[in-house]
Amino acid sequence: MFDVDMRLVSILGLLTVIVVVSLVLDYLEMLRRPARLGMWVAILGIIAGFVFTLNAVLPNDRFYGPVVTEVATSAKVVALTFDDGPYPPYTGQILDILREDHVPATFFVLGQNAEKYPALVRRIVDEGHQIGNHSYNHIDFLKANRATMADQIDRTNRIIKNITGKLPRLVRPPHGFRDAVVMDVMADRHLKVVEWSVSSRDWTNPGVDTIVERTVSGVKSGSIILLHDGDGIEQRASREQTVKATRQIIRELKAKGFKFVTVDEILTKTEE
User: Which of 26, 83, 179, 202 is catalytic?
Assistant: First the structure.
């Protein structure tokens, strides 16, 4: 776990300076004895920057703080999660499928979209699904200062509570990106950071069969699946492929004996 209250961009900036200075000193032959120290410092700086960045973007990495990507359980349970909504007509179509198949899911909503479509947010809750915070308008938290991040989260929390009467307990940073400060902002609000263990990259619209195959082949007991009912705040791209894939994913995983639960419910399996 990384506890230093320093932004990733600042760390990368510092490492860049170290790399450049080291290369210049090596070029001027000022740090070449006994073993080209300048070059090796530059190489280590590049490697460190790569590692710090990977730790910020890989969903299952806990370097900057605790995140949930899956749970270790022998129970054949799996959690479906949907990002970036609500987004008509696709969110409603997915809710229709979930209702028909008696499947609960977790929706990480954008505050701006929730403001536009409060009826869809209410429907999500009324039909037994869970809602999480996905920021207000999907900005990159690695590029935002603490005050901006706090406003994004707090504003979305207020919107969700005004619509549903309840504050969310879960958060998923946009793109899943986080550093030490992002994690600290979430901890201050007692929000559990939820990433994922299975992603089909459905937002690229690779085809229904591809979405299904990438998802089903990656699932195991305790998996958290990432899908998208929305398209950020742009709301331009079609999510028809995800809608069709969702129905097929549910049927194939049920045939394998999996039970669908919300993120809160799957976390109880770890506690048990």
Answer: 83
